[in-house]
Amino acid sequence: MKIALWIAQILLAFAFLASGGMKLFAFDKMAAQMPGLVELHGLFIFIGLCEVAGAAGLILPLLTGIYPILTAWAAAGLATIMVLAAGFHIYRAEYDHLPPVAVLFLLAAFVVWGRGLRKAA
Questions:
Q1: Do 22 and 49 meet the contact criterion of CB atoms below 8 Å apart?
Q2: Cα–Cα distance between 30 and 50 in angstroms, integer?
Q3: 3-state secondary structure at position 28
Q4: Which CA distances in Å does 47 have to 54, 80, 104, 121?
Q5: Rounded CA separation 77/57 (Å)
Q6: Of the residues 10, 58, 75, 99, which has the maximum number of CB atoms within 10 A of its CB?
Q7: pLDDT tens digits for range 65-101
Q8: Statement: residue 118 has pLDDT above 90
């Protein structure tokens, strides 16, 4: 179980580092591909920061042994971002974006269960 959780955490960390990095450093390219995003630039900067912080929170607390429960909290935050992302893409009728969002949500929920809820029970 520990190996599966670490694999999920590493996959999530890479995905959210890439996604957050794009929102932070390549917003112009994203806006060119998705019309109507220019007015949401500040929101995307905030979401990108949250995703990068969440990616660090998936790995660093367990790796260092300092407050390892923060890993579950980081995964819960990223799962929340995925729920909101699903709503955003449904609102914009971008249904082809929903499967990756669902996969990331399920991986984050697995980490929450494995690192947080399961240990509390």
A1: no
A2: 18
A3: helix
A4: 10, 11, 15, 32
A5: 10
A6: 58
A7: 999 999 999 999 999 999 999 999 999 899 999 999 9
A8: no
Q: Which domain holds residue 73?
A: 2-120
State how far the Cα of 95 lies from the Cα of 79, in Å rounded to an integer.
18
Residue type, 99: P
Q: What are phi and psi of 66, to 5 degrees?
A: -95, 115
In the chain, beta strands by DSSP E: none
Report the number of distinct structural domains present in the chain: 1
Is residue 12 classed as helix, strand or coil in its secondary structure?
helix
CA 48 to each of CA 7, 32, 53, 67, 69: distance values in angstroms, whole numbers, following the listed order: 22, 17, 9, 24, 23
- The DSSP symbol for 21 reads H
Note the pLDDT of residue 33: 79
Which pLDDT belongs to residue 35?
73
Helix axes 69-91, 41-64, angle to 10 degrees: 150
How many angstroms separate the CA atoms of 13 and 53, rounded? 10
